[in-house]
Amino acid sequence: MSTSGSDLGDLALLVRVAQLGSLGRVAEEVGLSQPSLSRRMARLERGLRLTLLQRGPRGTTLTPSGRVVVDWAEEVLGAARRFEESVAVLREHRSSTLRVAASMTIAEHLAPTWLSRLRDVEPDAVVAMSVTNSTDVADAVEHGRADLGFVESPTIRRSVRRRRLAWDHLVVVVADPHPWAGRTRPVTAADLAREPLLVREPGSGTRETLDEALRTRGLELTPAQVLASNAALKSSALVGIGPAVLSALAVVDELGSGRLVAVGLQDLDLRRPLSVVWRDGVQLPPVADVLVRLAAGRSR
User: Where would I find the HTH lysR-type domain in this sequence (predicted)?
Assistant: First the structure.
């Protein structure tokens, strides 16, 4: 038996006959004459070399072989519908905009490379990216305002699915003349909790990671300033307001030039995952899968 569209149509008619128990009712429903429908069922039986239907005065019933074939036919037809739906999604999203929300560190230091690579392999892809903190990114994904979200939070809400991409480390940085700039002994968690710090706002992945690391030690931080951007944290640290806690990705140039110094930590784990999230149960456009693969460091 071939797999042409007409065969799928005949299978669909067989399933409907099984549901209604009447060739006449199915013929009327689909706009065929009953002899035409009977010929199509006979053609299906010849192709399969099986007797599928028993015709009698009380209607049409399935043979044992017919019941098995109907079960299989429902699976085949379901797969065909899913295939057609997937192709429709592919057509719809070929030139549509992919909505991405990204937390600040990822948006500033990683996403530009990912989007450049995406343009190389998907030149027609259009990406609209909003930049905010990790909590707001998760909100945007959860409520359908973004197709994909890139977050730095150690915890992920249950309404979204997550794929970990990499690990990032927070660092504590200071500038001269802060005493920690020339300190040879590592700073303890208790030292860090007592020190007025420059920190990101609640809801950011940076702040969540720092708060959780101190909480596991039974400690709470003492903010000197709460700032909503990495650039503001760096600027405040550079003029000597106090130690700043932010991603190592954000201070590569300043550490390299010696304008800021990374402070050694003794008993505090400030590692955090970088992840992509999307709403559970939602079929993503194909370009989203390409972007995720690029972000994970794999070729298409």
Answer: 7-63
DSSP conformation class of 33: -
Find tokens 């930590």 and name the residue: 265
> What are the φ/ψ torsions at residue 267 (nearest 5 degrees)?
-140, 40
The string over 148-177, giving b where at least 16 C-beta atoms fall within 10 Å of a residue's C-beta and e elsewhere, is bbbbbbbebeeebebeebeebebbbbbbee
Please provide the DSSP assignment of 92-117 as one string.
HHSSSEEEEEEEHHHHHHTHHHHHHH
d(CA 266, CA 286): 45
Q: Express each pLDDT in 8-28 by its tens digit.
A: 899 999 999 999 988 999 999
Q: Which pLDDT does position 203 carry in this prediction?
A: 93
Structure tokens at 109: 């230091």
Residues 229, 221 contacting (CB under 8 angstroms): no
Q: In this model, does residue 169 exceed pLDDT 90?
A: yes
Rg (CA), the chain: 31
Mean pLDDT of the chain: 90
Per-residue DSSP letters for 180-230? GGG--SPBPHHHHHHSEEEEEPTTSHHHHHHHHHHHTTT---EEEEEESSH
What is the average per-residue pLDDT within 140-155?
Answer: 93
Ordered domains of the chain (ranges, CATH):
5-93 (1.10.10.10), 97-166+274-295 (3.40.190.10), 168-272 (3.40.190.10)
Q: How distant, in Å, are the alpha carbons of 138, 147, 148, 266, 278 from that of 143? A: 9, 10, 11, 41, 10
Q: 179-223 pLDDT, tens per residue?
A: 999 889 999 999 999 999 999 999 999 999 999 999 999 999 999
